[in-house]
Design goal:
Layout lengths: L10 H14 L6 E2 L2 E2 H9 L4 H4 L16 H12 L5 H10 L5 H17 L4 H8 L6 H9 L3 H7 L5 H13 L5 H9 L5 H12 L9 H14 L3 H15 L1 H5 L1 H13 L3 H22 L2 H21 L3 H12 L5 H18 L1 H11 L10 H13 L3 H13 L8 H16 L5 H8 L5 H10 L5 H11 L13 H8 L3 H19 L6 H8 L5 H13 L3 H11 L9 H7 L5 H11 L3 H12 L19 H13 L15 H19 L2 H10 L1 H9 L6 H7 L3 H21 L4 H9 L5
Antiparallel strand pairs: 1-2
Helix pairs in contact: 1-5, 1-7, 4-5, 5-6, 6-8, 7-8, 8-9, 8-10, 9-10, 10-11, 10-12, 13-14, 13-16, 14-16, 16-17, 16-18, 17-18, 18-19, 19-20, 20-21, 21-23, 22-40, 23-24, 24-26, 26-27, 27-41, 27-42, 29-30, 29-31, 31-32, 34-37, 35-41, 36-37, 37-38, 38-39, 38-41, 41-42
Length: 749
């Protein structure tokens, strides 16, 4: 930013006049923007901001007469509508800084900061309003943009990226040398807006030539290119860094990770592995002679870890396993330890289950987050079931179940293995005595079903299947009561913390109260770790009531996976809602398929979003491809149904989409003689699924499902079946075991 003018633009007098006007207003006013407060509130709740657009920009603070936090929500709505110069929007967010809600102040500060970054000349008008705002980032930004560098440096005293950005830039432009701190900041963490903007700001400064040398500048640009996934360009940039000063990578291991990704995704794995192993050898020798092992550990970890990733990408499994094993010794934290172990097991499995299972015995007691390994264990399960390796299945189950410590045991994966073992015992593929010998249970199929059924973290698919085998119910309807853990969590809070928690919930619910509900979900997601289950449930319900079913399902699904959660009946209605049910029931009946199955399919395909479009181009509630939709629409027309092609096929129309989707599913059932195979064919293609089934004719359908080597299709079948069981039980008074029986049995239409 060279010689940037700090003049006060035409905005400043208006903003200042607006602030003075705000101060003079009476808090008990009976009107807001020249209409009664109650009428203004009614309009805002409905999302109608016409009265704001027509009002004097200087009077925006009067929206606070509705409710102190209302200006923020009105500002979000105004931002969508108001053309430049956006004065009303800025004044609304400025007014929101006076809200007693900390959350509102922070959110309004973020909005005003974005305006200043886009137009720094707004800073003069925002500065006075930013004084005392929480957090102090807004004031630091306003001071920085108005040239008050010393005060900006002192105000930016936090550790968040924007605080660090303004602190470092203010210090730099005050004449102090913070080049190395700035260089490290730009390489730390993800390349978020704060770091990208900071680099641009430092590069445009009149003294920028003294900030970074050419090599450092190239390293930063390579880091940013990698973050943009421009791997080829980044690799060309990094090669210049290597030629000028390759030791920069040793001092900043994040650059090694960037370079490793560039080699891996640019098809230069052989070159990358050779270079990384050469560098690791040099660091090993340097460490040996100086006995300073810790100084090189992180760099050596990245060199070996990414050498392993490059070898894996080139399908050189043994070499990859060797590098990951060596990297494990240098892992800087528990997350990286798990990453190494995951790759060790993965590349072993790609060679053979015989190689993976002994390694599982070695490493299962060392991993830190058992759930991190669920995909590897899932792939291992698919492999051993597909090869009918029943003894190996017992051995794996015994291994993962015997590991001690809560963090090591993945209850969901144990439940999956338990159900499958119960099934192979019940089918007579292995004797109960053998199952007992390996597992320590009594060997009866019911014992394994019971274990899966009682595991609270198990997927709904395995819990419901096990329940159906036992004649049990996964959940029962009962009045909701705060869980004991929630009560204890509240009781330990101070009055201040309790008020802050209440303020957070009030802030999030305010989106729905004041017409800004479509903006709520990102804020809800960010706040999720701070919410109790009861609060999360309330917000999921608010999303559903607003018709945001996809968001409600996602959010309910996330809090239902939290540690210590117990399944509640009310959550099932949030996770398995029933919008468009009249249309769905109508066409399910016409197609002679169960309403529950069609609901389960639509829940899994689109989560009830009529405008959903997949990466492959499938559209609407039932996710229909254009060519499939046209073919089925023509069949429907020939059979005397409506002509959806006459005026152009509109797959985003819920009725058209559900009619075609149900017709197509019935068509697939007729071809496969099985609801399960039809569902799998709906996802993975009917011909492919029929070939897979023909190659595995003897296994029951539920065990055949476990053998499918296409992960997406395999998991899709489980999700639809589980959803159908839930819908049947919750809405149609059908036992879950009957829903599963209908899906798994052979049938003719």
């Amino acid at each position: 930013m060279k010689n940037r003018s700090r003049r006060r633009t035409d905005f400043f007098p208006l903003i200042l006049a607006s602030m003075l006007f705000f101060t003079s207003c009476e808090s008990e006013a009976k009107s807001a923007l020249d209409i009664p407060v109650q009428e203004a509130e009614k309009r805002l709740r409905q999302g109608d901001i016409t009265f704001i657009l027509e009002a004097d920009p200087k009077k925006m603070r009067e929206i606070a007469y509705i409710y102190p936090s209302a200006p923020f929500y009105a500002g979000l709505l105004m931002k969508e509508k108001e053309a430049a110069p956006k004065l009303r929007t800025i004044n609304l967010f400025t007014a929101a800084l006076s809200s007693p809600s900390t959350q509102i102040q922070e959110a309004a500060s973020d909005e005003l900061l974005a305006f200043m970054l886009d137009d720094p000349e707004l800073a003069a008008g925002i500065l006075d309003a930013a004084d005392g705002a929480k957090p102090s980032t807004l004031k630091a930004a306003a001071l920085y943009f108005t040239g008050n560098l010393g005060e900006a440096r002192d105000a930016a005293d936090g550790e968040q990226p924007w605080d660090r950005a303004f602190h470092l830039l203010s210090t730099l432009k005050s004449g102090r040398n913070v080049s190395q701190e700035l260089f490290q900041f730009l390489l730390d963490g993800t390349v978020a807006d704060a770091r990208a903007w900071t680099y641009g700001e430092a590069s445009e400064w009149e003294g920028s030539d003294s900030v970074f040398n050419e090599t450092e500048r190239l390293a930063i640009e390579g880091h940013f290119e990698t973050a943009r996934r421009s791997y080829g360009g980044a690799l060309r940039t990094f090669r210049k860094v290597i030629a000028q000063n390759h030791t920069l990578f040793f001092k900043h291991p994040a650059l090694i990770a960037d370079l490793g990704r560039c080699f891996q995704y640019s098809g230069a794995e052989t070159e990358g592995v050779a270079l990384f192993i050469e560098w690791e050898g040099a660091l090993r020798e340097w460490s040996r002679t100086r006995k300073e092992w810790e100084e090189t550990a992180h760099a050596r970890y990245n060199l070996l870890f990414f050498a392993g990733r490059m070898e894996r990408h080139a399908s050189r499994w043994s070499e990859a396993e060797d590098y990951f094993t060596r990297a494990l010794v240098f892992a800087p934290d528990k997350a990286q330890e798990d990453a190494c172990i995951w790759y060790i097991l993965d590349v072993a499995l790609k060679q053979s289950p015989e190689k993976a299972i002994p390694l599982l015995h070695i490493y299962a007691s060392q991993w830190n987050d058992a759930a991190y390994f669920s995909d590897v264990l899932g792939s291992l399960c698919q492999t051993v079931v597909a090869t009918h390796s029943w003894t190996r299945l017992l051995e794996i189950f015994s291994c993962i179940r015997s590991v001690k410590g809560e963090q090591y045991a993945d209850g969901a994966m144990i439940a999956q293995y338990a159900y499958i073992i119960g099934r192979i015992v019940s089918e007579g593929y292995i004797p109960a005595a053998k199952a007992a010998t390996y597992t320590g249970l009594d060997g009866a199929a019911e014992s394994f079903f019971r274990l899966a059924y009682e595991e609270q973290t198990a997927s709904f698919y395995y819990r419901t299947l096990s329940a159906s085998r036992l004649g049990e119910h996964v959940f029962v309807e009962q009045p909701e009561k705060p869980r004991e853990a929630e009560k204890k969590k509240r009781s330990k809070k101070s009055d201040e913390e309790t008020a802050e928690q209440a303020g957070l919930l009030d802030f999030l619910l305010g989106f729905f109260k004041y017409g800004a509900s479509r903006h709520a979900f990102p804020y809800i997601q960010r706040s999720a770790p701070e919410l109790t289950i009861d609060e999360s449930r309330m917000l999921a319900q608010a999303l559903a009531d607003d018709g945001q079913y996809y968001e409600s399902i996602r959010f309910a699904g996330s809090y239902m996976k939290t540690k210590g959660y117990s399944l509640a009946f009310s959550d099932m209605f949030l996770y398995y809602p029933r919008p468009f049910y009249a249309i769905i029931e109508k066409y399910a009946e016409q197609a002679n398929i169960s309403e529950a199955t069609l609901l389960g399919l639509i829940h899994t395909e689109s989560a009830f979003r009529p405008a959903a479009i997949s990466s492959a181009g499938a559209e609407g509630l039932a996710q229909i491809m254009d060519f499939t939709g046209a073919e089925m629409a023509e069949r429907i027309r020939r059979e005397g149904g409506p002509d959806y092609l006459e005026s152009g096929l509109n797959l985003k129309d819920p009725e058209v989409n559900v009619h075609i989707g149900s017709y197509y599913l019935a068509h697939l059932i007729g071809r496969t003689d099985s609801v399960l195979l039809a569902l799998l064919g709906y996802n993975g293609g009917p011909n492919r699924v029929r070939r897979l089934r023909a190659a595995e004719p003897s296994l029951p359908d539920d065990l055949f499902l476990e053998t499918i080597n296409i992960t997406e299709t395999r998991e899709y079948g489980k999700r639809v079946a589980a959803a159908a069981a839930a819908y049947g039980y919750m809405y149609y008074n059908v036992k879950m075991e009957d829903v599963f029986a209908d899906i798994l049995k052979k049938r003719r239409l």
